[in-house]
């Protein structure tokens, strides 16, 4: 589970009920978007232990915090993290398939 308090600290936000609820909501949405953008057939718990996945979720939540509509789309850094994570899935899938063929 992603820690909304960690993101509040990173954003230098004061903690109160309204801020806590907002940041938790943004993190939940970000995690769902990242998970489904990469590969939602892999359990979410697996992704939550991946440092790049966690960073991607925090990054997307931060983007949502400052620009709720993502008017300019995702940042290049965010796209790079998603591409990297998709690459990890592809390598794992390819390796697994290769192991079963032989």
Fold and architecture overview:
- The structure is a single chain.
- With 102 residues, this protein is mostly helical.
- The protein has one domain.
- 75% of the residues lie in helices and 0% in strands.
- The protein has 5 helices and no strands.
- It is globular, with a radius of gyration of 15 Å.
Pick out its properties.
102 residues; 0% strand
Helix content: over 70%
The number of helices is 5
Total count of strands: 0
The radius of gyration is 15 Å
Please tell me what the overall shape is. Answer: globular
**Ends: how far apart?**
38 Å
Structural class from helices and strands?
mainly alpha
Number of domains: 1
Secondary-structure element order, N to C:
HHHHH
Mean pLDDT: 90
Low-confidence stretches: none
Instruction: Profile the largest sheet.
Output: none
**Proportion of residues in extended strands:** under 5%
């Amino acid at each position: 589970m992603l820690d909304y308090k960690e993101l509040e600290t990173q954003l230098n936000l004061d903690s109160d009920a309204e801020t806590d609820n907002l940041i938790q909501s943004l993190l939940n949405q970000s995690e769902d978007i990242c998970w489904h953008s990469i590969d939602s057939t892999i359990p979410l718990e697996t992704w939550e232990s991946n440092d790049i996945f966690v960073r991607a979720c925090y990054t997307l939540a931060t983007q949502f915090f400052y620009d709720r509509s993502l008017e300019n789309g995702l940042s290049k850094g965010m796209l790079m993290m998603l591409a990297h994570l998709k690459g990890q899935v592809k390598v794992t899938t390819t390796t697994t398939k290769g192991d079963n063929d032989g």
